Amino acid sequence: MGSASKEYEFLSEIGLSSSHNLGNYVGGKWLGNGPLVSTLNPANNQPIAQVVEASLEDYEIGLKACEEAAKTWMQVPAPKRGDIVRQIGDALRSKLDYLGRLLSLEMGKILAEGIGEVQEVIDMCDFAVGLSRQLNGSVIPSERPNHMMLEMWNPLGIVGVITAFNFPCAVLGWNACIALVCGNCVVWKGAPTTPLITIAMTKLVAEVLEKNHLPGAIFTAMCGGAEIGEAIAKDTRIPLVSFTGSSKVGLAVQQTVSARSGKTLLELSGNNAIIVMDDADIQLAARSVLFAAVGTAGQRCTTCRRLLLHESVYDKVLEQLLTSYKQVKIGDPLEKGTLLGPLHTPESKKNFEKGIEVIKSQGGKVLTGGKAVEGEGNFVEPTIIEISSDAAVVKEELFAPVLYALKFKTFEEAVAINNSVPQGLSSSIFTRSPENIFKWIGPMGSDCGIVNVNIPTNGAEIGGAFGGEKATGGGREAGSDSWKQYMRRSTCTINYGNELPLAQGINFG
Ligand code: UN1
After folding, report:
1. Is there a catalytic annotation at residue 301?
2. Would you say residue 508 lies in a domain?
3. φ/ψ of residue 396, rounded to 5
4. d(Cα 311, Cα 291) in Å, to the nearest integer?
5. Using CA atoms, how far apart are residues 28 and 219, in angstroms rounded to an integer?
6. Quick one: 251 and 153 in the same domain?
7. Residue 472 near ligand 1, beta carbon < 6 Å
8. In angstroms, what is the span from residue 350 Cα to ligand 1's centroid?
9. Same domain as 255, residue 110
10. 106, 113, 117, 267: which is the annotated catalytic residue?
């Protein structure tokens, strides 16, 4: 543990202990009465530190305080709320490298991606600051004399945010930055396997709130598993629950939340395709596929899992990919030069191995990779499989760097394959033809929420609304007008005259 503790010395820079941490910020205080858990380094499965998760009693203390804090926060003028989010962004900037390192250490993504993820939260803060002066309503012409109609946007109160291990802070940023400027308190449950990130992020936010003499309960955060997640889903004090995870769990969350007339924002499974047409820039396509399929060890919801190649470029693209896949450096995500870090948990590694067996049993042929790397850590080889698009396994999301290569003849056939899976998150086409481009983004094109041209399926900017259709859940988070989901719309009709003319010309007595 001697050398290990030195390796983890930087944790103190972001308010973490390399031994014991209270995992819950409730009612403006750090406490923990739930189970004590170890958080593991996916590169060697050794413990990094211990964390005390939330008990249901902790949850209740948190929610009571949060309900109180909501009354204060929603009355703070929106641009002032924006200023708080600006300060959170500044705090993140000052700790960017440490937080990036922590992400790499605890989640397992390579350092460049760890830093990139924290940058994504900073970008969200900037976006939300501007938005805090643009939560504009509208004035609508009334059909009645001396009447005026207008739309006002008001806060919901409390927004629940349940995030996944693969983007343990960016997805919090998408939701929390917007929720906060919209006047909502946030109740956040991070993934059970990334508690240090939950704590480090929360410490930064808590400091900003304290410095501004605001109730800490405006941002309530907890570490824990399904029990706390379920409490959030069932809680009538939380009108909106944002959930990121699998389609299966997401559907259950949706049912629980809607049974109490709450709203959900779902970011669920993806099964994203890249189409390479016969006129594509092959170099550009091959580089994009490498990032989209191998980046984050295939654990993004935007990871490219299906590579649809026009028959005329099939061999050429695969040849290039097989060469670059062989050069991918697998190893410690914190080490310079590593492109492929470990999968997040030993269970993910087992799922990969099981997945490869199923693929083979359905006629899949391993072109490269296909094996887990022996030894400590959850490393697996980047894998390309040749398989028919009809194989059942191609319709599922295997959360690992496994890419299915599929052949097609026409644009229409490629679009049909793209749209043939239950999921509908991201998609991309490589072509130089304007006709293909406009067909692709139009009504008969990709049925996904994210529809790209000549770029990978992953790595979306925050300025657009992020989310997908079908089994991906239909949610839209981050930029564009996603903010409207974090507010309630009041349609207000004001009579400033002395008569009572009724709409639709009704004469009532
Ligand atoms: C996710 O995988 O849950 O577009 C989010 C991307 C990132 C976000 C991914 N900006 O790949």
Report:
1. yes
2. no
3. -105, 160
4. 23
5. 8
6. yes
7. no
8. 24
9. yes
10. 267
pLDDT at 184: 99
Is residue 483 located within the same domain as residue 450? no
pTM: 0.97
Structurally, the chain folds into a number of domains equal to 2
The preferred substitution site among 300, 466, 472 for testing ligand 1, maximizing ligand atoms within 8 Å of CB, is 300
Cα of 458 to ligand 1 centre, how many Å? 6
For residue 509, being part of any structural domain is answered with no
Ligand 1: which of 165, 302, 482 to mutate, judged by most atoms within 8 Å of the beta carbon? 302
Does the C-beta of 391 come closer than 6 Å to ligand 1?
no
- Domain holding 389, by residue range, is 272-467
Residue 322 lies inside a defined structural domain of this protein: yes
Is any atom of ligand 1 closer than 6 Å to the C-beta of 41? no
Tens-place pLDDT, residues 320-359: 999 999 999 999 999 999 999 999 999 999 999 999 999 9
Strand partners, 185: 158
Q: Is residue 499 part of a domain?
A: no
Give the domain CATH number at 261: 3.40.605.10
Tell how far the Cα of 6 is from the centroid of ligand 1, in angstroms.
32
Measured in Å, residue 477 CA sits from the centre of ligand 1 at 11
- Tally the C-alpha atoms within 13 A of residue 125's C-alpha that lie toward its C-beta: 19
Q: Tell me the average confidence (pLDDT) per consecutive run of 10 residues in the chain, 509 residues long.
A: 68 96 98 98 98 98 98 98 98 98 98 98 98 98 98 98 98 98 99 98 98 98 98 98 97 98 98 98 98 98 98 98 98 97 98 98 98 97 96 97 98 98 98 98 98 98 98 97 98 98 94
> Do 228 and 368 have their domain in common?
no
Residue 70 CA to ligand 1 center (angstroms) comes to: 29
One domain for residues 312 and 212? no
Do 57 and 168 belong together in one domain?
yes
167 CB less than 6 Å from ligand 1?
A: yes
Q: Is 262 in the pocket of ligand 1 (CB under 6 A)?
A: no
Contact indicator for 259, 410 with CB cutoff of 8 Å: no
Beta strands at 158-162 and 240-244: parallel, antiparallel or unpaired: parallel
Tokens standing for residue 85: 């989010």
Q: Active-site residue 492, yes or no?
A: no
Burial 68-81 (b: 16+ CB within 10 A, else e): ebbeebbebebeeb
Evaluate the CA torsion angle 296, 300, 305, 308 in order and state its sign.
Answer: negative
Mutate to test the pocket of ligand 1, among 163, 167, 399, 482 (most ligand atoms within 8 A of CB): 167
Residue of 301, 397, 448, 477 marked catalytic: 301
